[in-house]
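Long-time lurker. I teach an intro course on protein structure, and each term I like to show students one example going from raw sequence to a predicted 3D structure in token notation. This year I'd like something fresh instead of my usual example. Would anyone be willing to generate the tokens for the chain below so I can use it in lecture? Attribution to the forum is fine with me.
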Amino acid sequence: MNLSGGATTLEDTDAQGDDTSSGYAWKADIKNGPMQITAAYAYENMRSIDTYFGIGVIYTTSKTEKVSVGWSRGLKKRLAGGADSQSSGILALGYEKNLGKGAKIKASVFNLDSNADAIDFNNWGGVAGITIAF
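-- Reply from a regular --
Happy to contribute to a lecture. Here you go:
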């Protein structure tokens, strides 16, 4: 089990004046046998309040293959003027195969659901590739 977290405060000085920002984040990884569960949460407060939560599960099906599923959600709420907010969520399914000698095939299929500035969209996509580590 791995747990990590942190907090920050900063002062942004520019031509528009001074702003103070603060935030924190935490992450947990739990691994037991072939299964790994990862979760994270982050919060930031500056000119908007931004929050993020995500969770994922990675399952090792064999010595050379892994499958995964993950979900995350982000929300941005503007402080000045109040009501405008933006949100997005992602659901992803992944596959990885180790080909040996540092080469891997990786692929993901995902759904992105977003609501930003009165524009809603819900799209599916996919990506695949080969990675080589030296």
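Some talking points for your students: The first strand starts at residue 2 and ends at 14. The chain has a mean pLDDT of 88.
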